[in-house]
């Protein structure tokens, strides 16, 4: 049946892109209080899309749970839910599998605005790409799911499997709302497999499944010194400086060769298998090319003795994302600020637990805190690291669907980023997850000039159609 | 003759304060491009005040010299000049001395605004103080000079000495404009002594002359890593992070015990004399009291083996004032910024040269720059450290004037801050400088809730009247 749906998708492709542009125009920046209304508008747009696709029980689910109240950056953005559970039974009378589709409609902030070649919320086509904040992460990829469902429902009048859809609006701020929903109302998302469209391909034209993700803890480290801001001329040499203290602490978190110095940090981490390392070794990856064209720095950093893929997929890291405090305007102000805060995150790999890592970090910064300074570490959000088993019918179905669309074998990779909900699906729902993504390495995720390759948008829809079809096939489902 | 002028000043005191409030309402923040017009309004206000005081040749002097063009933070704010050079000759026919009065009408930014108890540009009286940005630094003190001149001219019809006045609008951004003017047109400021009203008293009710100031270099250190902002999940562990690099560099600039690690940094510095150290030892200063009530931190920092007064007056230091780059909004963004900048300053003591210190620092940061990062150090502004000789008739006149007004002996101290123009007066004009200031240690200079004790405003006017009178007296001038 998928061929009719694929035909529909190809016919309607231009309209799908035009709708995506409408969605991209909504600045649904989940971390920004001033965009609360925009985030909700985006949720409503997605709900409308699901309704017109023919999905049922479409609704917004509010996320202001007790657990998520008062978390910094948490605005209580709604979930969008839809379902279609009327797939005809298998020949043996048993039910077809249920697939849970997941994506997110919120986006990262667009700053720094001056570096965008076209405005972040005015989607612009150039060279076969669509440029906008959220183009690939994740509005474009989430919209592929919606359009795959529409194609199947409009072309065939039904879906080959039972489907539930959950789309969140807080992925970029830690996903507290959906995590709480999964904990409290997990049965409403009951499924045999989850399909997550929020990852990327290893290289252009190379169909890719992601089978591992790093976890993370995102923290704020506050340092306080004097009771008020002081003049550095009058007090410099006697008053503690929180910005200097943060620098001293950060410098002690990671050694010059990239090793994290928090005691016990590496305890219990699971190394990739020799087979996995071998497979990574045969991926088309040129470190010098990556340095030059993807990173663009004079040298790469990180731990000695590990390849770049190991360092970004299978090794924990620490990064600083911003420092708040003091004078940051143009020119000069000679202030010793009373307080300053650094946004510091750690990426975690399988074998590490976010709570445990945070506790170790917190203990360590208290130990190394300089004289005259008081530090406070706050956990903003966290996500479990995960590894997906590749030996199941769903991964097989995805592998085949992508291989058919791209005309070459699908490769397995890991991702260095975190999709916290995947950990929750595994832990709370015991639902295996397929991470089938269509981004490209140069899509500028979280950066200025984010883009989505339009050919991949269309191939993504087709791959999802074929995947659902394969999962629904009796032979495959029973294999 | 000063008694009539003192009488006038006492009579008119309320009006003087009311005029000062009008001046304080003008947000003449010299570092902020959006306040260029306000800065000029403040200059015009000062010029009008000098004119109505009876000063002559009052005019604004533009400072957009070649030397100051294109400097970050430099807006080309005008100087205000005035003179009165008709003092009657001494009995022996020789000319009376010429006194150059110096102050500044620009102010520091008022941020963080939320910490002000009353708005920074709505001067408010509480408990005998006037609260406003610039109250003590330096509008209030500069206005004392203008009002002292007015009192003498209105009460006596003339001044006891020849007077030139130069008021600048760029003191808080490095004073490039006045420095260039002094270099290029120094003869227009020719004087026998400069009186600078921009310092503070050591303690309430303790008449104080400042006889030394630290110099400074204010720098921006830019670190660049990747070509664009990157996602810390995907690239963390391989891409260099400029914020981490800045932390690593800053942590290496100063050891944990406050010693600056830049090679050669301390070469050639002049220690205070044993007599000076002894005098400092007898000042009313309680380190624990200072820590608790003035700084308000759990401990003081700085070099071992030096008292707080030595550390803040006679030892060089390093401070960080702000870090620009990455994500500093509310919540979380997992970005590895392509670039970040730290505002870093060093305070210098006699024997150190700003250009030399900057060159050493620049060389050192290039040496310790982490792998994958490119650093660039820029000098934003600098000022020479100075020590004033206490053995001249002008310091004697100032000492006596203050002692008479306060009814107790005047003490000599140094200041930890920098007034760059004082170095220029000494170097370019060979004009000795008297630093007679009326601020108090808790006046919140450069911080929220800046204030000026109103009693000191009036005592300052009286002290300046008496000082000018004494400098003009034949017996004193010839002593």
Question: What do these coordinates show?
Answer:
With 479 residues, chain A is of the alpha+beta class. Chain A folds into two domains: 2-213 and 385-478, Zn peptidases (Aminopeptidase, 3-Layer(aba) Sandwich); 215-269 and 316-383, Alpha-Beta Plaits (2-Layer Sandwich). In chain A, 36% of the residues lie in helices and 20% in strands. The first copy, chain A, is built from 15 helices and 18 strands. In chain A, strands 1, 2, 3, 6, 7, 8, 15, 16 and 17 form a nine-stranded mixed sheet that branches. In chain A, strands 11-13-9-14 form a four-stranded antiparallel sheet. In chain A, strands 4-5-18 form a three-stranded antiparallel sheet. In chain A, a hairpin with a 2-residue loop joins β4 (124-126) and β5. Chain A is globular, with a radius of gyration of 23 Å. The first copy, chain A, starts with a helix and ends with a helix. Chains A and B meet through β10, α6, α7, α10 and β11 of A and β10, α6, α7, α10 and β11 of B.
């Amino acid at each position: 049946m998928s061929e009719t749906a694929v035909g529909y998708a190809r016919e309607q492709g231009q309209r799908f892109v035009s709708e995506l542009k409408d969605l991209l125009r909504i600045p649904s920046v989940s971390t920004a209080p001033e965009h609360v209304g925009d985030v909700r508008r985006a949720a409503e747009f997605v709900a409308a899309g699901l309704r017109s696709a023919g999905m049922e029980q479409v609704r917004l689910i509010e996320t202001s749970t007790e657990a998520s109240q008062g978390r910094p950056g948490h605005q209580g953005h709604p979930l969008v839910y839809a379902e279609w559970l009327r797939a005809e039974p298998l020949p043996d009378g048993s039910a077809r599998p249920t697939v849970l589709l997941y994506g997110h409609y919120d986006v990262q902030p667009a700053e720094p605005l001056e570096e965008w070649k076209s405005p972040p919320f005015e989607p612009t086509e150039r060279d076969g790409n669509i440029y906008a904040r959220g183009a690939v992460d994740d509005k474009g990829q989430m919209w592929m799911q919606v359009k795959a469902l529409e194609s199947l429902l409009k072309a065939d009048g039904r879906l080959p499997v039972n489907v539930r859809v959950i789309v969140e609006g807080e992925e970029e701020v830690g996903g507290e709302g959906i995590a709480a929903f999964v904990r409290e109302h997990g049965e409403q998302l009951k499924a045999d497999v989850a399909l997550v469209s929020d990852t990327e391909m290893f290289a252009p034209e190379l169909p890719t499944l992601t089978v591992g993700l790093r976890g993370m803890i995102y923290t704020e480290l506050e340092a306080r010194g004097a009771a008020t801001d002081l003049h550095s001329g009058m007090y410099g040499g006697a008053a503690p400086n929180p910005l200097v203290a943060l620098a001293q602490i950060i410098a002690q978190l990671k050694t010059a060769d990239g090793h994290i110095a928090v005691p016990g940090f590496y305890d219990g981490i699971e190394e990739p298998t020799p087979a996995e390392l071998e497979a990574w070794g045969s991926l088309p990856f040129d470190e010098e090319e990556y340095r030059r064209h993807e990173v663009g720095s004079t040298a790469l950093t990180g731990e000695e003795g590990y390849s770049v893929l190991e360092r970004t997929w299978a090794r924990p890291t620490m990064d600083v994302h911003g420092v708040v405090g003091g004078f940051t305007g143009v020119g000069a102000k000679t202030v010793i600020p009373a307080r300053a805060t650094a946004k510091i995150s750690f990426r975690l790999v399988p074998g590490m637990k976010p709570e445990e890592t945070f506790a170790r970090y917190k203990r360590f910064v208290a130990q190394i805190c300089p004289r005259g300074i008081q530090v406070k570490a706050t956990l903003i959000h966290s996500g479990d690291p995960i590894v997906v088993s590749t030996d199941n019918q769903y991964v097989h179905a995805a592998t085949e669907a992508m291989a058919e669309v791209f005309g070459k074998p699908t490769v397995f990779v890991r991702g260095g980023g975190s999709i916290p909900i995947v950990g929750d699906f595994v832990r709370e729902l015991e639902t295996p997850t397929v991470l089938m993504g269509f981004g490209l390495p140069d899509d500028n995720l979280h950066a200025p000039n984010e883009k989505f390759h339009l050919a991949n948008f269309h191939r993504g829809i087709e791959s999802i159609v074929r995947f659902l079809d394969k999962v629904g096939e009796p032979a495959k489902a029973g294999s």
